[in-house]
Write a sequence for this structure.
């Protein structure tokens, strides 16, 4: 349920805000998996969960949505044989992207 998913994030954000009221918070989209990993539409909720999370971020002050799908989409070489988990070479790319988006890379 996307609403319960977002409510769980809201609860975590509220706890962080209680201790760190001015810190920006970045919430990351659920990463994609390769086609055919799930039967039928079993993983289709990922889209609705990500849409709900993005909408939450847009209406919540100092909370930002990050989506790095483009780093994995159409790149089967970046997945383990299970088609769900990225290979180790993905993680430095992902970290660099997150650092760039959040302004922590020193390049912004």
């Amino acid at each position: 349920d996307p609403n319960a998913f977002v409510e769980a994030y809201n609860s975590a954000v509220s706890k962080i805000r209680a201790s760190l009221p001015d810190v920006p918070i970045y919430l990351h989209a659920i990463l994609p998996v390769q086609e055919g990993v799930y039967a039928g539409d079993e993983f289709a909720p990922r889209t609705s969960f990500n849409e709900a999370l993005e909408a939450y971020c847009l209406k919540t002050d100092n909370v930002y949505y990050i989506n790095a799908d483009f780093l994995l989409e159409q790149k089967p070489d970046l997945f383990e044989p299970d088609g769900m988990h990225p290979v180790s070479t993905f993680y430095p790319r992902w970290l660099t992207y997150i650092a760039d988006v959040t302004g922590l890379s020193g390049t912004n």
